[in-house]
Every structure is written in C-alpha cells, then in structure tokens.
Fold these 2 entries.
Entry 1:
Amino acid sequence: MTNAADRRQALLAEYENIKSRQLNLDLTRGKPATAQLDLSNALDGILNGDYRCADGTDARNYGGGLGIPEARQFAADYLETHPSQVMVGGNSSLQIMYQYVANAMLNGLQGAESAWQNEAKGSERIKFLCPAPGYDRHFSICEALNIEMIPVRMNEQGPNMDEVEQLLSQDPLIKGIWCVPKYANPNGVVYADEVVDRFARLGTIAGANFRIMWDNAYAEHHLSDEPPQLANLLELSDKYGTLDNAIVIGSTSKITFAGAGMAFVASSEANIKQFAEYLGISTIGPDKVNQLRHVRFLKDMTGLRALMQEHRKILQPKFELVLKHLREGLSGKTINNKALGSWTEPAGGYFILFDTQPGLAGRVVELCAAAGVKLTPAGSTWPYKKDPANTNIRLAPSFPSLKEIDEAMQVFVLCVELATLEASESAGN
Ligand code: PMP
C-alpha cells in the first residue's frame, strides 16, 4: 500500500470510531448563543410602566409607521445618517428587505408604472446581481419573487466592480444588487473605500429604478481591537446625487434578541416615505413598545458598543478554537502538492469560510453529516445553491459551546483530509 492509502485507512478507522459516538453537533446557522441573548435580558420589564415616547406619544397604541423618534435617532447614529432618512420597523431586517424588493417589483418605487415587473416583457425576468459567496436568504428573496440571479465574483476588497459596472451597462433588466459590506456573510470581507465609492456611482449607470441592497448586518460586530472602517455609502451617494439608489439596512438581531430585536432601513427621505406608505397598507404601525425598550436599554452608540464588547468576549474564543483546529489540522499539509484547503480569519461578523480543493465541499459536508456534525449545505452560499467550483463551506461557530466546537472541528478536519485523499485516489494519483 502507498503512504496515502495507509493514511486513508487510519483516517477511516478514526472516522468509524467517531461515528460510533453518535455525535449531534451543529455548525450551520449564525445564531447567537444563549449566553449572548442573556446579555440583554434587562430589556424585559425595562419600561416599568412608562410608555411615553420622546414626542409624548404612547408607544402602546397604533401608529408611528416611521418608528418612534428616539429609535429613528438611534438607528440614524448606527447607520451614520440623519433620522429623517430612517425608518424603524419590526424585529427583522430580512423582512424589510423582502418587503422592499416586493414593493419595487409589484408596486413601483416611483408610482405604479415604475414597478420592476412592468419592464420584463414576455419571457424576460428582472435580475439581481449577487456577489457570491453570499447570504442564502438574500437569494431566497429573489427566488420567491421570480428574480433571476447573476453571480458576481467576490474578491478581498468586495465584489468585482469591473464586472458589476459592465453587467449594469449592458442589461437594463438588472434592478438590484445584494451586499453585506462589512464582515460579509460568509467570507468576512469588508468592502474597500474604492469599492464603496464605485457603488455610490452605480446609479449613474443603472438609472433611477436600480437599488443597492446594502445589508449592513454586522456593522458593530467586531472581533478585533482596531475595527476596519467601512466608507459611508449614504454620504457618498448623496454627494453623487444617487441617494435614491442606496437602501441601507440593519438590525439589533445580533446585538439584543435575535428574534425580538429592532430592524431599520435608511435611504433618501422620499424613498423612506414611499416605503412606509407601502407598509402602511399591511400594518397600522410597528412594535413601538419594543423600539422604546431598545432605546432605553441600549441608550446610544456608547451603550451599544459596550454591549458588543461583551458579545465579543463570548464569540472570540469560539472563532479562535475553530481557527486553531484548522491551523493545527490542516496548515502545511498537502496532497499532490496542493493544500487541503484555505480559510478566512475574519475581523468580525459571524462566519468563517472554508474552501476545499475544487469539487470537494459537498463530499466534506456529507462525511461530516454522517458523523453527526451538521454543516450548512455545500452550495447554499451561491445563487440557486450552485457553487460552480464546489469548494465553499460556511462555518458558523456562534451557537455551539466550546466543547461542541472542539468535537465538531476534530471531525471537520478529519473529513477534509479524508475527502481529499479519496478524491486523489479515485483520480488515480
Ligand atoms: N442579513 C445578514 C447578512 C444576516 O447574516 C442575517 C442573519 N443571519 C440577517 C440579515 C437577518 O437579520 P434579521 O434578524 O434582522 O432579519
């Protein structure tokens, strides 16, 4: 037997041994851990009978489609803009994004005749650019609304802007682009200043009915002492006269309670007013009680940043443990002179992206699943769940305990090597 075959036998024995332990571990979704949620338990009861908002309205009653004034101020500080350009909604930024795109598609952003669906004739479809790998739930919104997705390469500075600009100049049916500009889900990239500047000018190529869906979900979710700065899309867009093209979204889902946080959106005043009117058809106002308790609890950006430091204390050891396993298990190892994989070391956010050798991500996920370790399905970070190179695996270490991560990562590292050896043998190497 060759050395590779010996090694594979040894790994298989270890793998079978792990299987017999019937593990049940999960590294799939970017959920905060219970200890993180506990940091915000003071939200419960904080109003203590005082429901008066800054402008004297009663948070318990109907109304306030744009959000209560103090929550708009808070969200404006978070999104680095003016309160008049902000709407604060319910608990989910994903819901805001879905509703915004549905509104544009069906209703029109500048009157009914501007509805995106009117522009697609016959068998044509409206299209979105999807920097990939990206966030699977953005892609689900496109699928649900029959919007065709065009993947765009991500590099370390952000999406490939030459490609973005070229596609936009060729195809007027492209009406939007999804972005997670800071600590991107899943690859941790922070868009470079030059990239943000080019984004702010896209409206001049794509026209008034085009929208940049700038999902700044991880704006304050740092894992380093000197967080990188993201350039301000709204400010730059204002400068270039393209503010209507920029839709900036955020939420406190990974700051307070993931399922009961506060979500917000910013753009031009006209856009925000149009959107609030659209939402007004389906609701007589958002949960203002939750908005009020969020502002009383977080207070301001200083309060929020202090809380994020507490999150970091819980999250950082988990990220470090994943990275330790990857480094110790895989760094420097090669099969056929090729590294077994590469991975990101993000400065913030919720994910580590692992790349296998081409074609092996699906097999690694399958081997892990059979050994009791659930990973996000291979391909799910790509439009239509098709990773063309079949290399991306998203690791989400926030929810499991350190002990669980330790066990899961042992299995992961083993499965990466096993899958790579298998492939090398079947290729006759
Ligand atoms: N955007 C991104 C990029 C995310 O990763 C997530 C959560 N995984 C969300 C939005 C969901 O946010 P919310 O809870 O506010 O709907």
Note: The first strand starts at residue 25 and ends at 26.
Entry 2:
Amino acid sequence: VADVVIPAHHDDVDVVAHRGASRYAPENTLPAIEMAIAMGAEQVEIDVSLSADQQIILLHDNTLSRTTNVEEVFAGDPRVVADDSVPQLFTAAELATLEASNWGRFAVGSTSDDGRYAGAYLGTHVPTLAEALALFEDHPDVGLLIELKAPALSPGIEQILIDQLLAERAKGFTNPHVVQSFHPDSMELYAHLQVAAGLDLPVGQLHFVSANLGDAFRAQSTYADGFNPSHGSLSAAAVAEAHQAGLTVTPYTINDSARQAELVAIGVDGVITDRIDRLQCVLRGE
Ligand code: G3P
Ligand code: CA
C-alpha cells in the first residue's frame, strides 16, 4: 500500500475475522470459522445469543429472517412472525434445522461475484457455541472474540457463557478468548461474574463511535481490557490515550486496504475485518 508508513510493531497487530471469514463463507457459521482458521486469522469474531433451551448459539441479528429460512421451515408456527422471529423462542436443535447460507452472495442463483458462491454452502445450519469451539481443537493458538449480541434479549447469558467456558477449559480448551459487547452493563456484569467464577478473560467494550471516548476510557477501564470502537474517526491520539489507560484498541469493521494500513500506522492492536486477506497483505507491507 503506497504512502503509508507501517510501524515496526505491525507483526503484533491481530487479524480478526469478522463473523468468521464472512466475505467468503456465510457469517457466523461453521464453514466461516473453518475458513477463517484456514486463512490464518489470529482471532475469529462471532456473535452469540441464547436459544429457548439456554444454549449459546451463533447469530448476528436479533431476528432469524435475514440469514435463515425460519419462515419456510416453521411455516404456521405461532413463534414465526414475518421478519421478526426471534432465536430465543427456538431450541438449539430447532435452530440446527434452519438453512443459514441461502442468502446474499451465497444464495442459490446469486449472480454476485459471478455466482461463484451461489449455493456453495447449502446445508449449513445455525450452530451452537459448543460446535464452534470444537473447530478450534487442533488450533490452540487461534483466538476467539465472542460478542454478546443483545444481552437484554438473552438474560443470564453472561453466567451461562462463563459456565460453558469453564467446562470447556476443564476439557482442555486453552485458546485465547475475549468477550465483548456494545452493552456496558452486560460487560461490567460479565467481568464481575467471571472473577467470582475464577476466570480472568480479557473484556472488550465495543463502541459505535470512535471520537471523544476519553470519558468512556476512564469509566470503563475499571472492567474493560480493550476498547473496540467503530473505526470512523479513530485517531492516533485516541489510540495513545487508550494505551495509556492500559486498554488495547481493536476497531471494526475495516475492509479497505488503505484504511487498514492507516489504522495499523496509528498503533491499533487488532483490526476486525471481513477481508482477512487484504489485512494480511497490508501487514506484510504489500
Ligand atoms: O466485533 C465488532 C463488530 O462485529 C461489531 O459490529 O454489527 O458486526 O456485530 P457487528
Ligand atoms: Ca459482531
């Protein structure tokens, strides 16, 4: 990338695969996670919510309509509301019956990208966190960035996640993992509960904005280890201020190489991206 000087520490910038390798496989599915690992991501970001039977499942939206065929599979079911069926009313086993890849560039018949991805992942379901974690078994160095998507709609998810992570760790799961959310109350609660449970995972506080975060840094550094802001107007001064407060900075979601390079140049600790490949080129100075 021309005209951007990348500082010597760029090897330390984490490549974070947003919703898995979501440019190349349907977001928050097992193939997207497998692809992110295969492409060499250092961390894989996923979004999680609770199912009706209190299982942690992967889904970005608050409803199932954009990415699944819930209206077709559960036609006539009173839990199905046009464009507004919520995952919390379905069990994990029911969610596993939903097709999660027949949309966007992955839809059967899509002409995006010359139809290259059309139907490529058919048969992919809404996975549980347990299924996702199993994919990391042979890749102990790859980290997870677990986003509690809408904790108010999944009450108790903080403790359920802690219990599940503790159980996985007891079985030998050692991958680095960070928990994050846009919701400070949930993150503060999570931080408190994990200490009580004997866990000490880094906590990330997401922000929709990237300017004037000084007050938030001060207030939220009591429980957060990292700030993960929208990259929009993120400045070198803000990154330095966060670092001074002992916080890492990992902005989202940057797919443009030039902007990725700018963020690396101002000292961010990681970049959340759909375009792992572009970020890897930037970090290699290509
Ligand atoms: O990891 C941060 C990023 O994923 C937040 O935005 O909407 O993609 O979950 P969103
Ligand atoms: Ca997310």
Note: Residues 18, 45, 47, 60, 147, 206, 228, 252-253, 272 surround SN-glycerol-3-phosphate (ligand 1) (CB under 6 Å).
